[in-house]
Amino acid sequence: MAERLNLLSFKDNMRILHLSWIAFFISFAVWFNHAPLMAALRQNFGLNEQEVGILLILNVALTIPARIVVGMLVDRYGPRRMFTLILISAGLMCFAFALAQSFAQLALTRFLLGFVGAGFVVGIRMIGEWFPARQTGIAQGIYGGWGNFGSAASAMLLPSLALAFGGEHGWRFAIAATGVVAIIYGVVYYRSVEDTPKGSTYFKPKKMGAMEVTSRGDLALYLLMSLPIYGALALLVWKLSPSGLKWFSPAMSFTLYAAIAAICAYQGWKIVQVNREVLAKPVPELFRYRFGQVAILDLAYLVTFGSELALVSMLPLFYLDQFHLSPVTAGLLAGTYPVMNLVARPAGGILSDRIGRRLSLLLLFSGITGSFLLLGQVNQGWPVALVVANTLLCGLFAKGGSGAVFAMVPLIQRRMTGQIAGMAGAYGNVGGLVFLTVLSFVSPQIFFMVIGGTALVVLALIALLLAEPRGETAEVLPDGTVQMIKVG
Q: pLDDT 10s digit of each residue in the chain, 488 long?
């Protein structure tokens, strides 16, 4: 049974939890600080719909590889330094975005700001270090759910802040203000936290550049699971190519496709190099873990967070076009969906702590499958209230599922928590991109059915293949002795 956390406490590990979710909150507020000010940007720069679409795509483009890279770096250098670096760098980049004088400058700085979305990965490792297995679900759920609300806070506060500054440059001051907050808090975070509790060891990977696996079969699966990440980057290029928004020339598109293929090949080579010992001799049973657990959690987060990203983007227009509501009403109804993160993601973590990681995922994915398949039956004859209620039900299960995924991530292999979280987080962004691409070709009803069908496939994988973390995992201390870490 999970012990209850005192959310009003600011001592020991609760202090780390509160400081970390605030850091994540600020990073998400910075990541999405342009969205609520897009009308002002469009007016000041004379942007057309194509250029608006390009800015929205570029904002998520760098996040996918950044989560992989940041996962490696946080495992090596620790969350304290990494979160500080991300916040301060993002703050400086906010100033560059606020000072932009052309669309090209807006696009470049927005693309570079996408890396701040990788801040999520850093806190997963930090919380995993400070909370025991019996509390990791609720702690990670609070971290993810409350931190995720940063994007909603930007939407609520920044338009009023821009209006308060006034004038045609009010949006610039509002964006810059988020940068100031990020820089100040980056310093506060560095001075206020430690990577581990006193007396604990911060375990690091033996090698940099790729995740360590413990069997030949896992190595093959790791190589296979890396491909969709690069496929998503190629999909982003396609959306900006002459076949999509026509921002890239054919030559530029070809060059980028070739670069992505080269990076993919290099990463595959690096994965094999880091794990060449696995090909030569078996890893002792004591130090093995199942990469299949990582793969299933990746696909689960593709559905949970991917559907969240997609629905946040499409719900306002869905309500507007399907039910002919006013833009204000449609926006308010759509705004209820992301707010659910505050309770649903922690609830998924609590459920995972109380009834088990695998069973909670089975229950939540059953709900995701059923609610999205039901939403796929919606037509204009449905009462709006019923559609909104069903949408919120989708959000309840999906966001709870995100909490349950990251309740299990820190329990697989302590020294690689950042890399495992980075890969799962990248898959969440891949899911959002894939689902929104599907939406560009089909009706909203088919789009909902695709999400429900994908969830059904993942549900089957969880039921048949996912192993519950049990017992202890082994890590090697700097002096060569082995330490056992309880995971279930």
A: 345 778 888 888 999 999 999 999 999 999 988 888 888 888 889 988 888 888 888 888 899 999 999 999 999 999 999 999 999 999 999 999 999 999 999 999 999 999 999 999 999 999 999 998 888 899 999 999 998 888 878 878 888 888 888 778 899 999 999 999 999 999 999 999 999 998 888 888 888 889 999 999 999 999 999 999 999 999 999 988 998 888 889 999 999 999 999 999 999 999 999 999 888 888 888 778 899 999 999 999 999 999 988 888 788 778 888 888 777 787 778 777 878 888 899 999 999 999 999 999 999 999 999 999 999 998 888 999 999 999 999 999 999 999 999 999 999 988 899 999 999 999 999 999 999 889 888 899 999 999 999 999 999 999 999 988 877 776 766 666 767 777 66
Q: Which long-range contacts (CB under 8 A, 24 or more apart) does 248-256 make?
A: none
How many CA within 13 A on the CB side of residue 152?
Answer: 19
How many angstroms separate the CA atoms of 427 and 413, rounded? 19
Are 420 and 487 spatial neighbours (Cβ–Cβ below 8 Å)? no
Nearest to 273 by CA among 322, 208, 338, 225: 208
Residue with tokens 């979280």: 421
Q: Please state, in angstroms and rounded to a whole number, the distance separating the CA atoms of residues 455 and 398.
A: 10
Neighbour count for residue 115 (Cβ, 10 Å): 21
Cα–Cα distance, 390 to 384 (Å, whole number): 10
Can you tell me the distance from the alpha carbon of 87 to that of 109, in angstroms, rounded to the nearest whole number? 15
**Would you give the DSSP letter of residue 209?**
S
DSSP secondary structure code for residue 246 in this structure: -
Instruction: Show the tokens assigned to 183.
Output: 């820089």
Residue type, 68: I
How many other CB atoms are there within 10 angstroms of residue 259's CB atom?
A: 12
| Cβ pair 181, 26 in contact under 8 A | yes
Q: Rounded to 5 degrees, what angle do the CA atoms 460, 128, 487 make?
A: 60
**Residue closest to 83 by CA, chosen among 149, 150, 16:** 16
Within 10 Å of residue 233's Cβ, how many Cβ atoms?
A: 22
Residue 145 and residue 90 in contact, taking contact as beta carbons nearer than 8 Å: no
Question: Which of helix, strand or coil describes residue 488?
Answer: coil
Q: Are 87 and 185 in contact (CB under 8 A)?
A: yes
Token pair recorded at residue 350: 């609590």
As given in the structure block, the two tokens for residue 199 are: 């007396």
Q: For residues 398 and 372, give the distance between their C-alpha atoms in angstroms, rounded to a whole number.
A: 10
Q: State phi, psi for 31 to the nearest 5 degrees.
A: -60, -40
Cα 148 off chain centre by: 9
